Amino acid sequence: MGRRFMIWRSWPSASMRPRREIWCLSFGMSLGSWFSGRRICPPSRKRSDKRTGCLPCGACKAVGCSGMKRLSGWAVFDLDGTLVDTLDEITAALNRVLIRHRRKVLGREEVRDLVGHGPNTLLERAWSRTGLAAKRGEATELADEYSTEYERNPAGMSRPYPGVGAGLQRLQQLGWKMGVCTNKHGEAARELIRELGWDSWIRVIVSGDETFRKPDPRPLWMALRRLGAVPGRHLFIGDSEVDLLTAQRAGVESVFLGHGYGQVGGFQVRSFLDPVDLFRWMAQSGPRVVVKRGARRA
User: In Å, how far from its chain's centre is CA 139?
Assistant: First the structure.
């Protein structure tokens, strides 16, 4: 979730006596950097706004502080377990690799516990689960082998969760700019989005093989930058602690979708079990649609 911090800093004045000023740090405002700091006003004895915690000058809103009430209209989603159930595809490809190396196959629920950090970690965990751990450098070769097997999966094995397609389309009609940030290999992610017919709604896909992997915040920053996001209350929606930690580190508000493969853990965030409820909330809380006189409301 986007966070604001009011902190005191001392600066030398002309008389060389310390002079205090308040800074508003809105993490994630400056994409690609850890934070941006804006001096907003001198100390005030007035009470802060109860809803946002900001001082009454309102300057922090002017610079895009994430305390603004309405959502910005920019959202980034995780892919596997959030928008699409890909567990059957992952299980099938992984088991073919395991069989080739004379290891026991894993069931769907066993594989569910291994996903979330990308192919390399998936193979490392699978090797540890089925025998001796992978040797140094072996996981990369196994991940490449797994990616080849994944591409061999027949089309249609992955299924979007109920209500996701209609929800994405509705948000796009309301003017939302949406992207995907995933630890999945990029070509597999892009092919899946094209296969589902979502490529006209989801314009940006940042994958684990083209940049750093989640929970590093930089992939999420990259996705928002490519979407052309301006400072505001953006969202990152995912199904695991990895996604929530990524959003926290990036200074972006996180939403947990509970139908996937992970757990919310100790994070205190907005959660939904049904994506229909998620998309309804996003539509109601997002930017107001300006309707011209005589035109139908979207």
Answer: 25
Q: Which of 98, 129, 151 is the last residue in one of the domains?
A: 151
Tell whether 185 and 167 lie within a shared domain.
yes
For 27-59, what is each residue's pLDDT tens digit?
333 333 333 333 333 333 334 344 333 434 443
Annotated catalytic, 78?
Answer: yes
Count of alpha carbons within 13 angstroms of residue 275, beta-carbon side: 22
* 138-151 and 119-130 helices, crossing angle to 10°: 110
- 246/221 Cα distance (integer angstroms): 10
Assess if residue 37 is contained within a domain: yes
What CATH number is given to the structural domain containing 210?
A: 3.40.50.1000
Stretch 209-224: mean pLDDT, rounded?
93
Q: Which of 108, 134, 151 is the last residue of a domain?
A: 151
Tens of pLDDT, residue by residue over 114-141, are: 987 778 889 999 999 999 999 878 988 9
Q: Which of 296, 274, 237, 246 is nearest to 71 (CA)?
A: 237
More confidently predicted of 179 and 11: 179
For 129, the domain range is: 87-151
Catalytic residue among 78, 80, 239, 243: 78
Rg of the chain, C-alpha, whole Å: 22
Two structure tokens written together for 157 = 């094995």
